[in-house]
Design the sequence.
């Protein structure tokens, strides 16, 4: 029951999107019990973003929502990996990437809650 | 002070949107004290979504944000009802629908917080 | 590490966006320790929103996400100020504006978490 929402102010080509999708599907395994089998992704490229008052550089805002909780160490590993993915695939500087986590208590799937 | 955000990877026609809007306005009453009189909705159709590594099937990601808290039982009823709405109106399989809840402590309206 | 996401169902011209950006960069200082130097913004104009079952009036849904916590008093000041900004710049009635806060425990930047 993880969900990762990607917002970037650059274009994501189909090929890049496929790469990012596959890499996020692997990265999510850094959180115990999570895998691509339950992962939902949302991509919004060409978003209208500002960071530090400017929109002149590439920017990424990534939201990771998981059912339940994880350890600091696990979030650290995931932040490092997700930052690598967007840095490598879209040439976004790590210092222009925010990754925000949400631990979710109530999450529905297939008509009932986990 | 509830807010429901709909993201689907299919088109929502005006007629379907009106139906869904009306049904969500009823469904939110399953949470005590909530009604369409305070409900805000956001629709993003044709979103770029993946589930389980694939974007070949219809997918819905619904976020429900409420001021305060509710019981498990109430969330269960709402998940069942929202799933029915999107299953019936947009032919999305229940197994392709995530519904995520957020309980909000600080919420502003009309220039001040509740 | 604050992030403010703006969704409105009206158009935001470039000039208006610049004004709002600058004003939000000032307003965020109402939360101790926060400033435009760490502020990320997202704008989605012409969004598909409903409030109280209707989409005939202008509507704004603003999400403010901060790393850590703040006091009720600080949130009150920020709600007042953000409401003023959208009321003045986009002529949206305060009674048509929701501002939702999220206090975030895990937040990554530059490859590691705060």
Sequence:
């Amino acid at each position: 029951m993880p969900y990762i929402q990607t917002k970037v102010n650059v274009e994501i080509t189909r090929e890049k999107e496929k790469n990012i999708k596959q890499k996020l599907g692997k990265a999510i395994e850094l959180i115990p019990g999570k895998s691509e089998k339950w992962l939902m992704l949302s991509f919004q490229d060409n978003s209208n973003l500002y960071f530090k008052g400017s929109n002149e550089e590439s920017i990424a805002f990534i939201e990771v929502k998981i059912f339940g909780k994880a350890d600091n160490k696990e979030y650290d590993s995931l932040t490092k990996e997700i930052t690598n993915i967007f840095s490598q695939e879209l040439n976004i500087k790590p210092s222009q990437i925010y990754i925000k986590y949400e631990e979710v208590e109530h999450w529905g799937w297939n008509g009932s809650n986990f």
Observations:
- The interface with chain C takes residues 1, 3, 17, 21-22, 25, 36-45, 65, 102, 104-113 of chain B (CB under 8 Å).
- The mean pLDDT of chain B is 98.
- The helical segments of chain B are 14-27, 72-90.
